[in-house]
Write a structure and sequence with these properties.
Elements (H helix, E strand, L loop, with lengths): L1 E15 L2 E8 L10 E6 L5 E6 L1 E4 L5 E5 L8 E6 L3
Antiparallel strand pairs: 1-2, 1-7, 2-6, 3-4, 3-7, 5-6
Amino acid sequence: MEFAAVVVDIREESRVAGRQRWQMALDRTEFRAGDMGALEAVAPSGTKLTVPVLGVVVDADGEIWHVVEKPLAAGTAVTGRVDTV
């Protein structure tokens, strides 16, 4: 399943032994808790960027956050791809 979205917020989830994990919120998503997949974007240089979604969490306010190792900047247009099991 694919969908178009825009990154609206990012926050650091954790930092362990110099490795960071981030959470990204999108303006819309087809991901649900427990899903994995990828977010794809195109850099200004034209390079295609693929960011694996390692998991999805829902915070106390019901907002869905996509867990990644390398975040994309807020305002970045993405194509989301949810892996089906």
